[in-house]
Design goal:
Layout lengths: L1 H9 L2 H4 L7 H4 L8 H8 L4 H10 L12 H14 L1
């Protein structure tokens, strides 16, 4: 039961996330499409950092999470491995 509470707390940001008001296609655009609007919405969202942490911890490889694209998150992961 404690595990569920921790999980619920860790995902609480999703309840107020601005992305919940847009559709998934907004954050998972077709290859070659712009991610600019999704990133702008992310940057206005108070759950952005929690979303980014979730994406990095769960190795989300597609879409815009926490205001970063797949390539940007991969670059962040590589930089973190190089430092640590």
């Amino acid at each position: 039961m404690l595990i569920n509470t921790v999980t619920d707390d860790a995902l609480a940001w999703q309840e107020t996330a601005l992305c919940a008001q847009a559709g998934p296609e907004f954050f998972f655009p077709a290859p070659g499409s712009s991610t600019r609007e999704a990133k702008q919405l992310c940057n206005a969202c108070e759950g952005r950092l929690a979303c980014l942490e979730y994406a990095l911890a769960n190795d989300e490889r597609f879409g815009v999470w926490g205001g970063l694209s797949e390539k940007e998150r991969e670059r962040l992961r590589r930089e973190g491995r190089a430092r640590g």
